[in-house]
Design brief:
single chain, 255 residues, alpha/beta, Arc Repressor Mutant, subunit A, 2 domains, 9 strands
C-alpha cells in the first residue's frame, strides 16, 4: 500500500480523492488536510514518533488555505525531508505559481499536472508511483509556462539546486567545513551535509568530472564564485557553454 498524504482545501474534492484512491486497493491515505502548514506539522510528528509511519508521497493542490501555497509547502517539507515525492495539481494559470515552482528548484521525485486533465484516481496513481521511483513528469501546458520563467534563470547554476542545496553551496564556497555548515543550518549530523554535497555535485555534473570529493568541492566553489555553470575536460581544463550551448575551453581569470 502506498502511504499517501493529501493536501487540498476543497473538502468535497479532498474526500473524493481520498475515497477514490483508496478504492484502487493500492493507496492508504494516512492523513489529509487543507493547509501546507498542517502537512509539514504531520511530517514532523511522524518523524518524531515510532508509531506513525512517514508518508511515502504527497498529493498536493497548488492553491491552498493558509499562508503557504503548495509549492512553498513542498519546499518547507523537503527542507526537512529531502526530495520527498510530491504530485502537484492545479487549475490555476497564475504566473506567480510557475515562478514559485521554477525558483523552488524541485528537480525530481515529482509530477505537476493540470487538475482538469489528470485528476481521476486511475490517472493519479501512476503519477504517485513514478514520483516515488524518482521519476518526474510535467504537463506540457505547464512546462511551456514554466519555461518562460526558466529562460530568465538559465545561466544561473543555482537554479539547478533546491533551496537547501543553494544555502550549502554558498557556505561551501565560503570555505566552511561540513561540521560548520551543519551547525549553521541546525543539523545534528554532519553526514546530512555530505549527502547534500553529493546532490550539488550531481546537479552540476561534478560527479562525473571530478576524481574525488576534494576536487568536486573546489570546483563547486568556483561555480558559486563565478556564477556560471562550468565543466572540466579530461585534462582538467575548465569549460563553459557559449551562446549556442557548445562547451568551450575558457580562462577562469577572464570570467
Amino acid at each position: 500500500m502506498l502511504n499517501t498524504l493529501i493536501v487540498e482545501d476543497n473538502e468535497r474534492l479532498r474526500l473524493a480523492l481520498k475515497s477514490g484512491l483508496q478504492a484502487t486497493g493500492e493507496v492508504l491515505v494516512s492523513y489529509d488536510c487543507t493547509r501546507g502548514e498542517d502537512a509539514l506539522a504531520y511530517f514532523l510528528e511522524c518523524s518524531a514518533s515510532s508509531e506513525l509511519p512517514l508518508p511515502a508521497v504527497i498529493l498536493m493542490d497548488v492553491q491552498l488555505a493558509g499562508k503557504m501555497n503548495g509549492i512553498q509547502a513542498a519546499v518547507a517539507i523537503r527542507h526537512e525531508f529531502p526530495r520527498m515525492p510530491i504530485v502537484f495539481y492545479s487549475i490555476q494559470d497564475d504566473a506567480a505559481y510557475y515562478r514559485d515552482f521554477r525558483r523552488s528548484g524541485i528537480l525530481s521525485h515529482y509530477a505537476y499536472v493540470r487538475k482538469s486533465n489528470y485528476l481521476l484516481p486511475q490517472m493519479i496513481l501512476p503519477l504517485l508511483k513514478d514520483a516515488c521511483a524518482g521519476r518526474s513528469f510535467i504537463d506540457p501546458e505547464i512546462e511551456a509556462r514554466v519555461h518562460e520563467v526558466r529562460r530568465l534563470d538559465e545561466n544561473d547554476p543555482m537554479s539547478l539546486l533546491e533551496p537547501n542545496e543553494q544555502a550549502v553551496a554558498r557556505m561551501l564556497a565560503a570555505g566552511m567545513t561540513n561540521e560548520q555548515i551543519a551547525r549553521r543550518m541546525g543539523f545534528r549530523d554532519k553526514r546530512t551535509i555530505s549527502r547534500t554535497n553529493g546532490q550539488i555535485y550531481a546537479a552540476w555534473g561534478l560527479s562525473d568530472s571530478a576524481t574525488d570529493e576534494k576536487i568536486a568541492r573546489t570546483r563547486a566553489a568556483l561555480i558559486v564564485h563565478k556564477r556560471r555553470l562550468l565543466s572540466w575536460n579530461e585534462l582538467g581544463l575548465p569549460m563553459a557553454q557559449d551562446e549556442r550551448g557548445n562547451w568551450q575551453q575558457i580562462d577562469l581569470e577572464a570570467l
